[in-house]
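chain below, 520 aa
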Amino acid sequence: MAKPQLSYAQLLETNNMLQTNGDECYWLCVTRTVQESKLFPVPSYMLLSYLNCFYRYPGLLAKIEEKMSAEEIGDRMRNMGVKIANPSMGWGLTNFYLLGREWLIAAGLLRPQDAADDVMYVMDFWKRYQLAWHRNDGHLFNKEFDHRGQFLPERQLQVFHADLYDCQTGDELHEAAHQFLAAASQYCFLIACESRLCLHTQGPYKIDDQREMIVRDHFDLSECSLPWLDGVGAEVPYNNLTVTMAVDDCHFHICDDWGSTEAEPEFKADKLSGIGLYTSDMLSEGYIPVGMNSREELTQTFHELAGNIKDATAKLWQRIAGWSRDQMMDAGAITYYACIKDLAHVAGVYDVDDWMKIDHRADRFRPLFNDEYGRDCLGEMVGLISLPQQQISDYSMMMHSNAPKRVYTPIPYDILKTGDYVPSVGDVERGITYLPEKEDRYNTTQGTLTLSEFNRKAADFVPETLQNDRNLLCETWVKFHYDSPQADDLYKVHQKHSRLLKDRGAGLRRADIEKIRSQE
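prediction:
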């Protein structure tokens, strides 16, 4: 994919994306979080990660696109639950990068016009990925869809809906599911250095007049790219787990670009009325059921996974307890920076030094980022919006605050005339880490692989959903060709692992799914 060329139209589009990302960044940071931790120096490692993103993302995204385009990866993402979901892609890729840029502008080390080619390319990559991933709901990110994300095609939703096991408060499956969800959430939070980057929730999807379904993903649970899970995650059998949940009398009015939710009335245990469990990755043919052959098997699977995860959590606590501050800084910064690492895994071009190191250009600022500076600087940049370059005309009223402020500084248009700008930060340069080196083990749906094996398999893999131009058979096409052999074949690809829908093909409606469920 050729990089976008500097032009007036391209700058207009890029600055528009800077503005819309800034608006959402402010809303999320002010209304959706409090970044504090008694264990990790969270604001400080966030600042370090932002600089790492600024210096490394342009070169690494270009490396990925030498093998696979952003939009093809986005197309694949609609059929798996890996880490390039929200918050990594809807918010992380662009905002981590832009916050690094904004800090350097505030420090007087970067002019607004510098790295213009990089900024245009990063935003263009994000746009193409997001439009492909969001193809079914037709939006660029959840913000545009009133904070909801409905990425999945009908054929996948029918399988998730049909194969749900009903449950209610007090029964064994219900209790086992909640024990697993609680253990997995705590584990994910700790893996991600007390952030939410290993969790994602999408939806809601309406499955009848009284019920909605949400889909919750848990990422990087086993031995994976993260070196601090070597050994720790060895007994967790799946690296990614997707839980489908039906809820009664509960409307999820927010599924935001951080992958977090709010519901009215509040989503509590008694609202859960159906459950399913799946795994997937960049080597799997879509979502693979886990323990879904019977209620009893699923109940036992939840119990076993909860036990595995609790053991791994205890081991991880022990490991982190021995870390120095620099190791905590590295782990946190790498967690944020490498939230998009699965782009490289999908393309088969993953390199440990690319994703598990802090670029020396970012690392030179580490001594500045003590706890007090990290807290106050981050608060000024994303909460108060009080850095000098973030102030604009007194006549202006920022979205959500009505103050004359702007989160991200636009690229000035006069560079089209003067040419006075530095196009790029250049190639990815050497990195450092205070953490132990990554051991060469990666748990995948194809077994435990070395990195070279993983890259080779990923580079060669083309999922059935993309073969024979199936990728172009969109929801609109299905609407007008549902009775065709091609549509039937398309649906059967997604139904391959389904307990109730295998080989039923196209033509089913939501009411038909409920009828099939009632006959089980």
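Residues 8-145+324-432 form one domain. The longest helix spans residues 295-321.
thats it, cya
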